[in-house]
Design brief:
homotetramer, 8 helices, globular
Chain lengths: 247, 247, 247, 247
């Protein structure tokens, strides 16, 4: 089983009728419903206004992959919770950051950059082109995903050199964007996925959900638990050998 | 099931008693025996002196992951077979190139570089340090693998920028080497793994075998089959949509 | 001085009046004229129909950066000349491959992949967005370069993982393309730059020329000449030291 | 001219006679002396115990490349100064982080990871092997640099995927380390260089100084100043064009 925690800011859906009409109960509720059919997922929900934003030590320690949607209230996320999430990612928890989450504290913390971009809200057509078809995140997807209407995000997107640029978006109004990007940090995997503006029904698109399901499976830690995660003062050669083997 | 084809040059083992004593029946036989316990592997063998070097269209089309060990007879591998293997890798077959295979036609073809390095045979201790512990190829391995005696390969290794450097080797005599390296080319995954000189019992080491088993599982294609593999003259926008979706 | 050799296939310009009208004397002539104002360039020309395609050992050994434009006659380039160019790139000569050169023998040789893509000729607007503004190739360029009409090239472009994707193109008809990409192979630097279809006046665009001038300066070798370029059988520790220092 | 600011914690040299004997006046003084012969450098010094740690807005705005040496007092560096340095790097100032600076606030901030490693002080021989000889940072250097005695740093070094691993170190006691590594973040270039423990005369080594001089020249911004550094709400197509061109 893959333990998935969906974190949603959950403010737009409470404040604006237009958004609530698209996502009654919130974006997290829609995602949770979509994930129900995945028999290898165990889904949990957390939102900004819960104590500790729903991200206690217990919850995070029991999470394989965290999904993050935030927008208007990035600044309200407490630094100590950001520290905690960052620590868990570096220890091996996967994280999938959606759309306006590019400007969240946790994403900027993991990236080390401004994460700036250019944008426009104009109900534009978006096409996400697959540029790395060998990647498991693209399995079962068309050569491109088309969304009839989305917010535009454009380059230059101020992110560190990606491990892989998996999708590049085309927008009707004349821009491009690296819209599906992976990194690893510490023992954890990161996937940024651009679509998902609150005012469009993007998470009703079956291919978008398929990408997220693929990404969750990819992001779950499957590496080496014996490599030290803490600084280590070691002895030379033969002595170190013993240390390394006794796990 | 993962269909694994082990290709071995199989010359040293026939010509030199010292080598035959270590690997009676050949390196490929030893590897095949080790892989038997893996219930998800279906193993086949191919060697240089068979017709088409054992790599007919039928065999390659029925192979998920090809393992390649060669050394003294690289030049005897026919170019048309190299073409065939390269084509299959670019279509999605994984390939794992071992040790002196760094100088094989197929590896140089996929890399585009000379694949030169410095070397020495002096029965030296080697340590392969894990530098990317998040990677599935390192799962279940110690912080480093130690081999009591191996041939030394040293930098500068003339390879293209790796996707990931997973192991870096330390040698007693004073050198280092990027000894576990991944790339993707086309739809196929490539793993180069340095150890395995014919005159040492390297493939009796359980951790070395574990790395190979991990690498086989990683190298099997799990990507997107709908993305065109051939050049494609497309129509603008709406027409292209139909083309792309009808698969 | 940077010794630049411009190689042009020079067939379209001789066979089609429409092309000759745009580039009288050939694309190479136009580029050479544009480069004249660069006081640090020393420019030479070579074309397919000259002996050895104009690329003798003498010419290549005296070239810092080679520019390559080819299209309809890729197959006529002799393999021994391709070998020679590849060898020089791996030794440190820079190479800039333009537009349809993506399908040239030399580019496919250096990449190891098919270099396939999708395409369309429909007089479309292209925008090349700068995605790596820290890179010297982008110096003095706008946030994007706009070309009123160009041939479309679209993803998936079957190239190895780039060192840097510097430009991403947007096309009116709905596609995107990694249109400015760098790699290193051996001691040599490679820049692929998409624009430059023979039927459009792309090389009259001042920003396109600026990119090429920047790329030429970037591609000139400025690295380490003491690192061995040939395989080397070395002695352990102290003895190797002597070898390495005595240059 | 390249405006270089050398930042040194300058505590070991004041507290321990053994260190002061090696670097009278501090590590920064030694580096400044070495850089004097470089006619294209304009060198300034800053230390922890100065107001604002010597890194006022004025100083940073007038710095092309910042060098950072810190060790025992990382925690005393004020967060607002770290913010300021990070901002300048993202705007294009180069930064070269030396040795124990791997654990400084600014380096961890830019990396987003723990920057953990394993270490040992045992007067060991270190060899830094050049693995990317095409890179300007390696110009004029031997195939490897040998230091008779240094502190050992070993893998796994918890850093993000490097742009380029330029040097890999070998240590007598059995470890390896990625000891010369580049990244870009925002518009700025970063070079981490491992050697330089306070108790060894590493900065008296002419090749080490040569690497630093090369790195300073490489790290100076030479990119594109027209690309927006701030988030930008843009208009579609034609209107955006005006915005982009009018700089």
């Amino acid at each position: 089983m893959i333990k998935v925690t969906i974190w949603n800011e959950f403010r737009h859906e409470k404040k604006e009728k237009k958004i609530a009409d698209i996502y009654p109960g919130g974006i997290h509720k829609k995602l949770a419903e979509e994930f129900k059919s995945q028999t290898d997922f165990e889904v949990r929900i957390a939102t900004l206004d819960e104590p500790e934003h729903g991200l206690s030590e217990e919850v995070l320690n029991d999470t394989d992959v965290l999904i993050w949607w935030g927008h208007m209230a990035h600044s309200e996320v407490e630094d100590r919770i950001v520290d905690r999430v960052q620590k868990r990612v570096l220890e091996g928890m996967g994280i999938i950051v959606l759309h306006s989450g590019h400007y969240s504290k946790i994403f900027k913390r993991l990236m080390g950059t401004t994460c700036n971009l250019i944008w426009r809200e104009a109900d534009e057509k978006e096409r996400l082109w697959v540029v790395e078809p060998f990647h498991p995140i693209t399995q079962g997807i068309s050569p491109y995903i088309e969304l009839a209407q989305e917010e535009m995000y454009g380059e230059r997107f101020d992110i560190p050199e990606p491990d892989k640029v998996i999708f590049i978006s085309w927008f009707e109004g004349g821009e491009v964007f690296r819209s599906g990007v992976t990194w690893t940090r510490g023992f954890g995997k990161i996937f940024y996925f651009r679509p998902g503006h609150e005012s469009y029904p993007t998470f009703y698109n079956k291919e978008i959900i398929k990408v997220l399901c693929n990404a969750i499976r990819w992001a779950k830690f499957a590496g080496n638990i014996s490599v030290p995660k803490e600084p280590l003062n070691v002895k030379p050669l033969e002595k170190l050998k013993i240390l390394a083997r006794e796990k």
